[in-house]
């Protein structure tokens, strides 16, 4: 900072006026540039919002968002109180429901630089071989595809122990969007003293669609033999999650569900993927719906915790 001050301390007050002008310009530029610190900038992204309810359910709601009452129930319309307008919440901790996504860590403000690992989302195994779960986030202003996360592991004496990589299962990340990963090494976690992370985007597939309404259906806790009055027949009773989607875009040939579970500290503890359920058909047309294969987790170390954890959902189609 002293070096910076030495550069901008002039004998005439010209530089002072320049700094003020620069700050004012940074805060007034249109198109989403928002001043966020001395000589810094943050770019505001356009979130992929879902259509309004009257477009999603035209037979249920009118264009004012009022419920259209069926004739056999008296007819007419029922309107609630006027919608409250809240300030835009730019916090990545905000729970968002967007096209192809439900969850936290989706940022409406990015730095415009790169895809990065979110350190605050990481969980590192505390025993056994080295394993990690976490999130990356697309901090650029463009879509990125086929992201690879790499971890370089070092010992206490600085020795390189291993370098491992994993793909983010969400094949297209939009500006501000997070994506989960699971990465593993055969090195004992007790031997690892330091980890260096790197992220490399790959080729962007133009056929990928994210224009979906994610539809979480239900969950069944791990280890219970009866749930809501129904006797289970899947001993040893894994954790189960079911979900589907509605296609808001063009016809697709297939889709994948990605789910990440966050603990009470908003750290990723588990990641799963699921294909379309058998019998879905050759393709899903616009406004069509489909279900995914149920996700089942039998791991007794993590399964009992998943029901109570926060979920993040992604749907990716082609």
Low-confidence parts: 1-40
- How would you characterize the largest beta sheet? 5 strands, antiparallel
Q: What is the beta-strand fraction?
A: 35-45%
Can you count the helices?
A: 4
How far the N terminus sits from the C terminus, by CA atoms, comes to: 50 Å
**What series of H and E elements makes up the topology?**
HHEEHEEEEEEEEEEEEEEEEEEEEEHE
Oligomer: single chain
Structural class by sheet pairing and helices: mainly beta
Verbal overview:
With 318 residues, the chain is mainly beta. Helix content is 9%, strand content 39%. The chain has helices at 2-8, 14-28, 53-56, 303-306, and strands at residues 33-34, 42-44, 67-68, 77-78, 96-98, 101-103, 109-110, 115-117, 123-124, 129-138, 144-154, 160-167, 172-173, 178-188, 194-202, 212-220, 226-227, 230-231, 239-247, 255-262, 268-275, 289-291, 295-297, 310-317. A five-stranded antiparallel β-sheet has the order 5-6-24-20-21, with no helix packed on it. Strands 8, 9, 10 and 14 form a four-stranded antiparallel β-sheet that branches. A hairpin with a 5-residue loop joins strand 20 (255-262) and strand 21 (268-275). The chain is globular.
Describe the secondary-structure layout.
Elements lengths: L1 H7 L5 H15 L4 E2 L7 E3 L8 H4 L10 E2 L8 E2 L17 E3 L2 E3 L5 E2 L4 E3 L5 E2 L4 E10 L5 E11 L5 E8 L4 E2 L4 E11 L5 E9 L9 E9 L5 E2 L2 E2 L7 E9 L7 E8 L5 E8 L13 E3 L3 E3 L5 H4 L3 E8 L1
Antiparallel strand pairs: 1-2, 2-7, 3-4, 5-6, 6-24, 8-10, 9-10, 10-14, 11-12, 11-13, 11-15, 16-19, 17-18, 19-22, 19-23, 20-21, 20-24
């Amino acid at each position: 900072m002293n070096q910076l001050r030495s550069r901008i301390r002039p004998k005439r007050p010209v530089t002072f006026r320049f700094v003020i002008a620069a700050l004012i310009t940074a805060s007034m530029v249109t198109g989403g540039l928002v001043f966020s610190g001395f000589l810094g900038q943050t770019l505001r992204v356009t979130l992929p919002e879902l259509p309004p309810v009257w477009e999603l359910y035209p037979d249920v709601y009118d264009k004012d968002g009022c419920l259209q009452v069926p004739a056999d129930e008296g007819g007419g319309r029922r309107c609630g109180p006027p919608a409250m307008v809240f300030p835009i919440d730019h916090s990545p901790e905000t729970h968002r429901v967007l096209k192809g996504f439900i969850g936290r860590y989706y940022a409406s403000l990015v730095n415009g630089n790169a895809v990065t690992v979110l350190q605050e989302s990481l969980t590192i195994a505390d025993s056994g071989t080295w394993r990690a779960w976490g999130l990356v986030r697309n901090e650029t202003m463009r879509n990125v595809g086929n992201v690879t996360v790499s971890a370089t592991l070092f010992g206490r004496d600085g020795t390189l122990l291993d370098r491992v990589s994993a793909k983010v299962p969400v094949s297209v990340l939009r500006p501000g969007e997070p994506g989960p990963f699971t990465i593993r090494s055969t090195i004992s976690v007790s031997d690892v003293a330091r980890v260096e992370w790197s992220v490399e985007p790959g080729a962007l597939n133009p056929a990928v669609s994210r224009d979906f309404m994610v539809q979480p259906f239900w969950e069944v806790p791990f280890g219970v033999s009866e749930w809501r009055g129904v006797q289970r027949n899947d001993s040893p009773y894994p954790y189960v999650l079911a979900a589907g989607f509605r296609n808001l875009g063009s016809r697709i040939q297939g889709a994948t569900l990605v789910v990440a579970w966050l603990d009470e500290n908003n750290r990723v503890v588990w990641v799963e993927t699921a294909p379309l359920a058998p019998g879905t058909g050759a393709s899903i047309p616009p406004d069509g719906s489909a279900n995914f294969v149920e996700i089942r987790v039998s791991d007794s170390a993590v399964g009992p915790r998943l029901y109570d954890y926060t979920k993040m959902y992604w749907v990716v189609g082609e």
